[in-house]
Amino acid sequence: MSRRDGILRELGLGPIWRLRDRPAEPVLEDAEAAGVSPRLTIAVPAALPADDRAAAIAAMGWDELKAAVADCRACGLCQARKQAVLGVGDVEADWLFVGEGPGAEEDERGEPFVGQAGKLLDAMLAAIDLQRGNNVYIGNAVKCRPPGNRTPEPEETAACRPFLERQIALIKPRLIVALGRPAAQTLLRSEVKISGSRGRLFDFHGIPLVVTYHPAYLLRNLPDKARAWEDLCFMRRTMKGS
Ligand code: URA
User: Fold this and answer.
1) What's the angle, vertex CA 113, arms to CA 174 and CA 108, rounded to 5?
2) For 134, which DSSP code?
3) Which of 98, 106, 120 best tests ligand 1's pocket when mutated (most atoms within 8 Å of CB)?
4) Rounded to the nearest whole angstrom, what is the distance from the C-alpha of residue 219 to the centroid of ligand 1?
5) pTM
6) Could you tell me the strand order of the sheet in which 136-140 lies?
7) Ligand 1 contacts CB of residue 112 (under 6 A)
8) 111 lines ligand 1 (CB under 6 A)
9) Tens digits of per-residue pLDDT, 106-152?
10) Topology of the domain comprising 29-241
11) Where are the domains of the chain?
């Protein structure tokens, strides 16, 4: 088998990594009966000055953060969402993957990356011996689905950024992986091109950050999966060296 074939197989295009559909998560009919703490309502009025709102969010623990995200009305994305999607995984993970925003299936199920792009992300994780939820946390730049899966607007990512920053502060990952341009731009607060950012080490408040393609882009641009594999190897090397 050629090296290229090997890479594509590793990334889910060959028989080795063909993923089956994951079973749907059980629906919690009664959170209290299931031992889940009752839902908090945390009022972080969207009308607070941005600095005060960010400071309030920066002081939150996970329960308050979950509640604040669920009730957030800081930008227009709240209007069409079914639910806000905070993130999923190990809250003490070394690896943090940040995507763009929930799509239709994520909006429905309340978990990031559960659609086609998510299947590819899972295959990418498996290619470097990682697994969703196991030393890995997956979140998004915006927590509510942009209508029609459009790219979130800068004011939407800016409104959601304090939530992402708080997640990062609580998780304290050893490496942050920005999946695609909106995630990279949100985290780095600057214009970014994926082509010019791949293979470079950025810094997010002392945490190494790398940039790679968004899995949904890779589904549309199959030849770039070989480059994504290079990025995965770079991430792994970076983590080993950190
Ligand atoms: N794309 C993203 O960026 N995030 C998701 O959660 C799903 C698809």
Assistant:
1) 135
2) B
3) 106
4) 13
5) 0.84
6) 87-89, 136-140, 95-99, 175-179, 207-212, 202-204
7) yes
8) no
9) 999 999 999 999 999 999 999 999 999 999 999 999 999 999 999 99
10) Uracil-DNA Glycosylase, subunit E (3.40.470)
11) 29-241
